[in-house]
Amino acid sequence: MESTQSEQSKLSFTAELFQIARRNAQTYTILLALVGIWLIFFFTTGGAYLGAQNVSNLFRQMSVTAFLAAGMVLVIVTGNIDLSVGKMAGFVSVVVAYLQANTWYDYLPNQPLLAAVLSVTIGLAVGALFGAIQGYIIAYLNVPSFIVTLAGLWLFNGLILLVTEGKTIPANQPWFSDIAQGYVPTHWGWVFAALAIGFLFWNMFRSRQNKQKHGFELRNIYVDLLITGFAALIILIYVYNVNNYRGVQNPVLLLAVTVAIMVYISNNTRFGRYAYAIGGNRDAARLSGINIRSMVFRIFVLMGFLSGVAGIVLASYVGYGTIAAGQGYELDAIASCILGGTSTLGGIGTVPGAMIGALIIASLSTGLQMMNVAPAWQYVVKAIVLVLAVLADVYFKKNR
Fold first, then answer.
1. Shortest CA distance to 310 belongs to which of 116, 70, 51?
2. What backbone torsions phi and psi does residue 183 show, to the nearest 5 degrees?
3. H/E element holding 169?
4. I need a labelling partner for 183 at 20 to 30 A (CA). Which of 1, 140, 326, 384 fits?
């Protein structure tokens, strides 16, 4: 009798794994593609591609795009688009660079920490403010997001030129430069890894409790433990690798916190559920009592805030505010979301998927640069990968 129950449990476990694989075939395909990209560059660069220093640089380089992609997921999920995020981040970067190099240099010459805190605060406020302005025009004045954010892109281009006056502004002052160029001590890296793994398991058990509370069918607990354990293993491998260089990078730690918050918001709050409901069926969401205008407005404010975060990290990482700041980041952010499974039709998309997409974009750029591939061909490769991702999205939707 016990052996029969054990066999049934194993069959149930295998069947659930198979069902999960079918439902998430696109996500696993993208993961396999990422592993394939890494293996190709590993062998073509003689193993240097997956060296501790290059892995550290790879994750640092993806951070700016990843911050933008984290917010872009909810924008696209609701059936909107934001073409201005790259230049908005660029504008924030030149604003904080100007404050660091000029304003605080005159008024707070010997207080670099206070100057950095004020610069970050103002940069976040600028991003949120412009996000609110665009969100208000889109949500309450009923102007399509494509038009509003395209105008925003041109506006930020002009504002960047006005602030910089065509010059490069240094932003490499103490404390501020550590935001994107600094490292977490190795022992603290393990502490943060433990906290991240603890969050993963807490989130898993909390999700199971909520499903049980509302009468939803629960998956086999061993399936959830296997999936969460695999994610925990990836975190441990990453921390071990970068600790062999100089430790976890500050922007990656900041990104991890941001992703955890965004995942929680998307999966466990009314705000997140409403966003997916709007994208899934706008009329049904409206008839259910969801304030669509308020939701869209708040999502664009959040997008502006995350653009501010990206702009601050960009200025700190590059060390300068330039006239080309933020160029092309909006396209990388949108591509990251699509590569990660976010549907251009709305209603479908995840923040972790967008992070995988951002990592693919950064992996391609870094690997092709290490192989000394001409920039023109780098764009060609990215274009092909993006089109293949969209074709995969169409294929999997048709099969569902």
1. 70
2. -130, 150
3. strand 169-170
4. 326
pTM here is 0.90
Is 170 strand, coil or helix? strand
- Kindly report the backbone phi and psi dihedral angles of residue 320, in degrees, each rounded to the nearest multiple of 5, phi listed first: -150, 160
Q: Residue 244 has which token pair?
A: 């062999």
Domains, the chain, ordered by start: 28-39+47-182+249-399 (1.10.3470)
CA atoms in the 13 A half-sphere facing the CB of 320 = 9
Report d(CA 81, CA 153) in Å as an integer: 12
Helices 329-339 and 351-370, interaxial angle, to 10°?
120
Q: Beta partners for 170? A: 320
- Sequential DSSP letters for 226-269: HHHHHHHHHHHHHHHHHHTTT-SBHHHHHHHHHHHHHHHHHHHS
Residue 215 tokens, joined: 């009468």
Decide: helix, strand or coil at residue 183: strand
- Residue 11 structure tokens: 């069959």
Measured between alpha carbons, how far is residue 262 from residues 271, 324, 342 in Å?
Answer: 11, 29, 15
How far CA 308 is from CA of 131, 245, 256, 296, 301, in Å, comes to: 10, 29, 17, 18, 11
**CA–CA–CA angle 24, 26, 30 (5° rounding):** 120
Provide the H-helix boundaries in 244-350.
250-268, 270-280, 282-287, 292-318, 329-339
Cβ–Cβ contacts within 10 Å for residue 131, how many?
Answer: 28
CA distance 363 to 38: 7
d(Cα 302, Cα 309) in Å, to the nearest integer?
A: 11
User: Tens-digit pLDDT profile for the chain (400 aa)?
Assistant: 445 545 445 556 576 656 665 665 666 777 888 888 889 888 988 888 888 888 889 999 899 999 999 999 999 999 999 999 999 999 999 999 999 888 777 777 788 888 899 999 999 999 999 999 999 999 999 999 999 999 999 999 999 999 998 888 988 888 899 999 999 998 999 999 999 999 889 888 888 887 777 777 777 777 788 888 888 998 999 999 999 988 899 999 999 999 999 998 998 889 999 999 998 888 888 888 889 999 999 999 999 999 999 999 999 999 888 898 888 899 899 989 988 888 888 888 889 889 999 999 999 888 888 888 888 888 888 888 778 777 776 676 666 5
Contacts of 112 (CB under 8 A, 6+ apart): 173, 174, 175, 176
